Amino acid sequence: MMDQAAKPQDRLAAWLAQDMDLVNGLIRTRMASEHAPRIPEVTAHLVEAGGKRLRPLLTLAAARMCGYDGPFHVHLAATVEFIHTATLLHDDVVDESARRRGRPTANLLWDNKTSVLVGDYLFSRSFQLMVETGSLRVLDILANASATIAEGEVLQLTAAQDLATTEGVYLQVVRGKTAALFSAATEVGGVIAGADERHVRALFDYGDALGVAFQIVDDLLDYGGTVAAIGKNPGDDFRERKLTLPVIKAVAQADATERAFWTRTIAKGDQQDGDLAQAMAIMARHGAMEAARQDALAWAAKARTAIGTLPAHELRDMLADLADYVVERIS
Amino acid sequence: MMDQAAKPQDRLAAWLAQDMDLVNGLIRTRMASEHAPRIPEVTAHLVEAGGKRLRPLLTLAAARMCGYDGPFHVHLAATVEFIHTATLLHDDVVDESARRRGRPTANLLWDNKTSVLVGDYLFSRSFQLMVETGSLRVLDILANASATIAEGEVLQLTAAQDLATTEGVYLQVVRGKTAALFSAATEVGGVIAGADERHVRALFDYGDALGVAFQIVDDLLDYGGTVAAIGKNPGDDFRERKLTLPVIKAVAQADATERAFWTRTIAKGDQQDGDLAQAMAIMARHGAMEAARQDALAWAAKARTAIGTLPAHELRDMLADLADYVVERIS
């Protein structure tokens, strides 16, 4: 009997433990390279760091709750984890991050070159894995997700430092950096299982809303978390001059003095000691953190509603609980 | 009547001009991004710089000489050009190059971040294009080529500065950086046309040998070309401490003094004025340039032999002439 008090993600991991063993085995096999020993060194650094394996669990859960009993949900789960890891490697180059998952990033331990090329290698390995499923529809979904991810990353780069960034642009960036892979992960699980179209659609909607909620929470914690809780330094987004949701909301309501503050710190990048605290005080004054929190809760509720349209299943209930859990850190 | 004295590539371009117009139109359409205007700025910089469009011509020629009259050779030609351009963007980050195709590189005009992310975007766009062909075999070939490319790049990174690099490792690197995409370009042309298996195999062998010859020539010219001829600074490979074929051959025959020279300049990277000239003198002493030149000629002959097994066709003869032309700069 499963402990109902356990975290939803742990309950998913327990239910799907056998499948997940196969996924981990496939990941280890496919991240190897006969000719270039540096590849498994770098990928092992990331893969062993653990991460939460959330995306592959989403794919496995979606396929299993739709009754799939073939082998290819394992390939697809490994595919989404490879895409995720490749994205992290390239992100770390782009963000010039020093820490990831609480450990030094690959680009600090090796160099940017290695991060770029090993990321490319993992992308191409993920591509091979999905071709093996023989499903053109799955390939189409993942090709589109890849384009959305890359487009969102470029958009984030150009939107950074731009005080005119709207909540609409923010949502596009968030879809790219997080929600596109979440929704592809759940959708391909349904597709490989041959689920009804309306169920496939609901799985997509669930992943999309879960991803948006997840990213808003992440962005909120960057202004309120600790290194231990978020695995990176709080305030990184501010220092990198990213227009995340609470900042966008605060900028929208800024008076002249505040606007000058945002222009100096974000648009011009002239930051001094105490500016981060000042930014947080301004956001608190306008209720920007609270408003962003409410948005995250609404996306989580949307995810729960979407998954609720699928037939009753233990995994369905765990996914619904996961939507609540994602926002629990800010509740 | 085609001028038989024209360069083979120009004859190919003239014969395939209508198809190539469609390819260029598709490239322009697909490199656009609704949300991220920086993407077409960067890609236009590369695409308008022209390059030689050699790879898409290979795909179009292979498909047409095998009697293809459907629409998808155009998608595949655009696919290989996108993969090539994405690879160039990432290479420039990795090599820290300042010039590409005779113009400043994207990472100098924008930044490394943009080069990484726009490269990822082009990869994902190429992936979408190939999915549209509906051919799982084409997807399989291009997925494998992508993995070979990425693996070869990582291998080159770790083989750089390593005097123990063998000609076998060099060949693997060359397959990754050049030949894998050439051979995939010709092979998918045959596959989409439904050609006989032996003809598909010959098209693969042609592209592979052509690519190896092409890269050896490129590596030779780095020690003997001019900025005008090669679109980059001669001696870049030496300064980047790359173990290319003539260096590998010279190192294999080095006496103690020469070995100390290679250890200082390549292994340790302690380079001074005059070292490039000294390296060239040592290579000349051992006939290393000439031996590498003979290797390139042998690969070109192998390409000509492979394409000669296909049925008679004007395009076939142009491809055979192209094999000779590729090595003409060193003949």
TrEMBL record, chains A, B:
It is an enzyme of class 2 (transferase). Keywords: Magnesium, Metal-binding, Transferase. SUPFAM superfamilies: Terpenoid synthases. Supplies octaprenyl diphosphate, the precursor for the side chain of the isoprenoid quinones ubiquinone and menaquinone. The keyword Phosphoprotein does not apply. InterPro entries: Isoprenoid_synthase_dom_sf, Polyprenyl_synt, Polyprenyl_synt_CS. GO terms for biological process: isoprenoid biosynthetic process. It comes from Pseudorhodobacter antarcticus. It catalyses: 5 isopentenyl diphosphate + (2E,6E)-farnesyl diphosphate = all-trans-octaprenyl diphosphate + 5 diphosphate. It comes from the Bacteria. The keyword Nuclease does not apply. It holds the Pfam family polyprenyl_synt. Its EC number is 2.5.1.90. This is Octaprenyl diphosphate synthase. Signal peptide: none annotated. Its cofactor is Mg(2+). One of its GO terms (molecular function) is all-trans-octaprenyl-diphosphate synthase activity. Belongs to the FPP/GGPP synthase family.
